[in-house]
């Protein structure tokens, strides 16, 4: 797989950082935020959480505060590892294993090149839509919701893409189910974030 695919995914994920940057108004959490400011610690300021760092309650609070958009960072971190592997910036044997994993999904076939080009197209299109959301959403709440919907749609399209590529025999049999489960978890989490948005 070309490093350009991984880098395109990372560039798309970076839009999320700009989306989350401004604080989102959360009146019902103002009191908790004041307590947090007095005692220190807790989660990120945009999250407005009083939970301890690296805890499940903190993740739940940040998931709700970001309308599920935080899942994009988890997904992007995996592609960051992949990009570092392809750029030979990971120590061996980890770097080699990462490269082999991405190459083996399509069984090192010529169809794999086309499969990853399709990934690039999806990443570029979603990046363009996310840029439009950042520029023209009326407020931060709408920006979060629409950006989450864009990412949820992207993950859904990836699920559909993998399904039809598997029907054509492009994807290695033992990689199809884990890859689809992986994408389904992120797609479902992001659509859930859209549904719970207020």
Count of separate DSSP helical elements: 8
Q: Give the biggest sheet.
A: none
How confident is the prediction overall: mean pLDDT? Answer: 76
Order of helices and strands: HHHHHHHH
Rg, Cα atoms, Å: 18 Å
Shape: globular
Strand coverage percent: under 5%
What distance lies between the first and last C-alpha atoms, to the nearest angstrom? 40 Å
Helix content: over 70%
Number of domains: 1
Care to count the β-strands?
A: 0
Low-confidence stretches: 26-43
Structural classification: mainly alpha
Can you characterise this structure?
This protein has one domain (3-196). Helices cover 73% and strands 0% of the residues. The protein starts with a helix and ends with a helix. It is built from 8 helices and no strands. It is globular, with a radius of gyration of 18 Å. By secondary structure, the chain is mainly α. Residues 26-43 have low confidence and may be disordered.
